[in-house]
Design a protein that fits this description.
TIM Barrel; 15 helices; globular
């Protein structure tokens, strides 16, 4: 499975399309099967790894992935999280800073010591021990811009981007340094690929994406010794070309973007990953999911995956149906 993934993300010939998920895989049905429930599985390395492993062993996915939410780094920077529920991801209830002008207040955390970053790093080590070189291990970090979207109020962030506040770039450089250090710790622990989660950039458009997001993603990717994948939610048609310019090995696309269109724009620069609707995975039937997955394959997707992270209430049978599309 690892070999097939490597061949696919390097755009080499494969015997069949791999079924892997670089985004969140923690669903309630798997929590029931393993006893590794949220929110404990957000905070405990063994539980985190066990839940991730179950998506491979029980869910038919050909990958494992941690963590299950995107607030690990900003929590270490002082954000206060809430909403710790079994079927919802935690969210920021109190931001660490109010404006980018306050970036000098931030202390650079140590990924090996601070917050829950060591928990995720240990979970990757556990997964590496359990799957070895058999299965690709995905570890996720926030892209620099996505980190800012949680570090401060998102409306304020966009206001500063669109008005050109100078300190924004200093804060993005800080975020890039932190995410690079954290990602490299994950790679050293055994991660095959790093997913840069960047849903917040879907509202920027080509000009601002290039200046405030793409530039820093490219820097981060250039400094990592691992495969890299960028995921941006929504219709990314207007920025797909720039996403490929980052040097990312794979682009994870939402169901808003037809696979054939993405392949046309990106060409051979990056593998296209996706993009079975997460709404269908949650609420559809196995037959509907199989039909949609087959369309993705026929349209030329390089790695079959959900269009975003699995909704927590996704039925296990629906998760398993992705691989059934290959039969």
């Amino acid at each position: 499975m690892l070999e097939r993934f490597v061949q696919a993300i390097e755009l080499k010939e494969v015997d069949r399309v791999p079924v892997a998920c670089p985004l969140q895989t923690g669903i309630v049905d798997l929590m029931k099967e393993t006893g590794a429930y949220w929110p404990e599985a957000h905070k405990n390395s063994e539980k985190m790894a066990e839940l991730a492993l179950s998506a491979f062993k029980l869910g038919n996915l050909e990958s494992v992935r941690v963590p299950y939410e995107n607030c690990v780094e900003v929590e270490a920077l002082g954000c206060v999280l809430g909403n710790w529920k079994i079927d919802e991801q935690p969210r920021v209830e109190k931001h660490a800073i109010s404006t980018s002008k306050e970036y000098e207040k931030l202390r650079m955390p140590d990924p090996s010591k601070d917050g829950r970053m060591p928990v995720v790093i240990k979970a990757v080590r556990i997964l590496k021990e359990r799957v070895g070189d058999e299965v690709p291990i995905f570890a996720a970090v926030s892209s620099p811009f996505e980190m800012l979207a949680r570090l401060m109020d998102y409306t304020q962030l966009l206001r500063e981007v669109f008005t050109g506040v100078e300190e924004m770039h200093s804060l993005l450089e800080f975020a890039t340094e932190l995410e690079t250090m954290y990602a490299q710790h994950l790679v050293d622990a055994g991660a095959t690929a790093i997913t840069l989660v960047n849903g917040s950039s879907s509202n920027l458009g080509p000009k601002f994406y290039g200046e405030y997001s793409m530039k820093y993603e490219k820097e981060l990717i250039e400094n990592l010794d691992a495969y890299t994948i960028i995921h941006i939610c929504g219709d990314t048609s207007l920025i797909l070309d720039q996403m490929a310019q980052t040097g990312a090995d794979g682009l994870s696309i939402d169901s808003h973007v037809p696979v054939s269109k993405a392949k046309e724009i990106v060409g051979k620069r990056s593998a296209i990953i996706g993009n079975v609707s997460t709404t269908n995975l949650w609420k559809g039937s196995p037959d509907e999911i199989i039909a949609e997955a087959k369309r993705c394959i026929n349209d030329g997707v390089d790695i079959l995956a959900p269009a975003c992270g699995f909704p927590p209430r996704t039925p296990l049978e629906n998760m398993k149906s992705l691989k059934r599309a290959l039969v």
